Description:
- The protein is of the alpha/beta class.
- It is built from eleven helices and eight strands.
- It is globular.
- The N and C termini lie far apart (39 Å).
Amino acid sequence: MTGQPSDLPAEINTSTAHPARMYDYYLGGKDNYPADRRAAEQVLAAVPSAPAMARANRAFLHRAVRFLAAEARMRQFVDIGTGLPTSPNVHQIAQAVTPDARVVYIDNDPIVHVHANALLAGEATSIVLADLRQPDAILDHPTLRRRIDLTQPVALLLVAILHFLGDDEDPAGIVARLRDRLADGSYVVISHATADFDRQAAAAAARAYDQAAAPMVLRSHAEIERLFDGFELVGPGLVQVSRWRPDDQRPGTKGEVWAYGGVGRGPGRVSGEARVEAGRAGTVESSRTRCPTVGP
């Protein structure tokens, strides 16, 4: 790693592997520690193509952000579970399309926060140390509120993060809570690991995360699709991340990437904040109508 443990705040513990730093290792980064590398090597022993899958997931993020900035005309982005900075980052992609794009990066790893603060913070970007398990704390954070106007549409990025929430933590409920706080017309981007293509190898790889700060939960296509409740999936729907609007248009191999990804569009015109207030007054329903989704 470029920085030694002594360069970091004393309260940071590097003896436990963290998914963000393991992901950095797959991508060939240097911001990882021995515990991260040991756990990542266990994943690689079960799934040697894990680095290629990580790169495919990253490429999906790039394409989704370009779509949101260029076609959906999004100007506000909230990236939860941002991980360690890897160029190009979300703000660089979005601002290449629309220079006035604003981005808030969220992660719960203090090491990620240290690096992101040094490399990503700027006039149109902010970094927040927070946990996805507390969605209201994220959206109410003063740093986010200074950067993001929640009465206007927001692009919410949940890329390779929800599979680190157990079923008992109700990931669908967390997404729904975030959805209901955002202005109508917002978008969500989700990618999520699956065992649909090789259950034995995927399960072996997932077991390596048991020693990490967050175990990995593999979910089926149907389970991941339910995370988009309240959103309408834009074409081509929920598909393997390598098949979501690929730049080269090549079909690829069906089992090449063990992760699904999609982009969902929220309906309506009333802002999420206005809906909450109106709901308290009893003038409108606070829940959304479930929108249709499109399969692979």
